[in-house]
Amino acid sequence: MAAKNLNVAARRATPERGAPTESAPQVPLLSLDYLWFQVAGTVCNLRCSHCFISCAPDNHDFWFLDLETVRAYLQESKSWGTKEYYFTGGEPFMNRQLLPMLEETLAIGPATVLTNATLLPDRTVRRLAEIDAASPFSLELRVSLDGPSPEANDPIRGEGTFERAMEGVGRLVGHGFLPIVTAAQIWCQHEDEGVYRQFVDALRKVGYTRPRIKILPSLRIGREALRSRGYCDEERVTAAMLQGYDLARLLCSSGRIVTDRGSTLPMRTSVRTWRRRIARSHSAIAPATPAGGMAPSAGTRKFQLRNWGPGKSPGIVQVDSVVRGFGELGSR
Questions:
Q1: 172, 120 Cβ separation under 8 angstroms
Q2: Do residues 128 and 81 make contact, with C-beta atoms less than 8 angstroms apart?
Q3: How far apart are CA 231 and CA 218, in angstroms?
Q4: How far is the C-alpha of 295 from the C-alpha of 199, rounded, in Å?
Q5: Backbone angles phi, psi at 202, to 5 degrees
Q6: Which residues of 30-45 are buried (b: 16+ CB within 10 A; e: fewer)?
Q7: Which residues contact 90 (CB under 8 A, 6 or more apart)?
Q8: Which of 86, 117, 234, 244 could form a disulfide with 165 if both were Cys (CB 3.0 to 4.6 A apart)?
């Protein structure tokens, strides 16, 4: 029964086929400041019980990107004025071409990798440091860790994951990186200060004397909807809520993510997430091109949706109203 429920959660965590709902608010792509690459698809070496896109070793809903695909988008992004590049998954370090991808990216702009830090042997971290040192731009790493101890973290991320992630953080720090440790808030809000201090103490033990820590609200979709609860109707963003709101403050107006399907997927956000302005685009929405790929806006504020499968007609882009975002919220 549990396996069946997880399969249901995995399906919920990937985009439904077809057009968004009629009531969803429209958000224009004003610029392409942020370009994301889902380099590992939904494949991850862990099976976290709170993962909002239900990543797992056997979740192949989205597959790996190859170097050639990333390179093509990097070249196109030069004309789009892209300012920052992000690499996510799944677990990005499961992609054997990640390091050359980062090397080529850092030749044209800053890059950030979202990782669970459990696949970081010394040779990989040493190579990351070499790539970073040779670039005029910065390489950032965000490490997902959901508790300051094995007792708090491992029931969510799996047995032994705390120690492995801390070892990865220690290696990163030892090679000069200052990773951002991101934690989903799976505890009561009044415990934030105490949990934060415990994180600081734990990270100092591996040599991270002034750690960077970010605590984020969990996204109640995918497995998290089963672990805790899903969203209710009053937590959905509506078009009326966006009336008079500066849409440029929404990151979906300035970012897109590349998947193995050559398009981006609809970003979904809750009221709480939207108000905190921490959503990132995860959208199959992009200006349509003859080749069916992504393209910058050409003076239009509505974009076409590249539907799934052959013979589908593009529709008008809307941003749906349930949480589904990538970025700072991308726990691995």
A1: yes
A2: no
A3: 11
A4: 42
A5: -65, -40
A6: ebbebbbbbbbbbbbb
A7: 38, 39, 40, 41, 42, 43, 44, 55, 59, 62, 332
A8: 117
Over the stretch 182-193, which tens digit does the pLDDT of each residue have?
A: 999 888 888 889
- In 3D space, the residue among 107, 96, 105, 103 whose CA is nearest the CA of residue 130 turns out to be 103
Strand, coil or helix: what is 113?
A: strand
| Cα-Cα-Cα-Cα dihedral sign, residues 117, 123, 125, 128 | negative
pLDDT in tens, 20-51: 444 667 888 899 999 999 999 999 999 998 88
Contact 20, 68 (CB under 8 A): no
Question: What's the length of the chain?
Answer: 332
* Residue 54: closest CA among 1, 108, 3: 3
From residue 174, how far is each of 112, 135, 194, 207 by CA, in Å? 18, 19, 27, 8
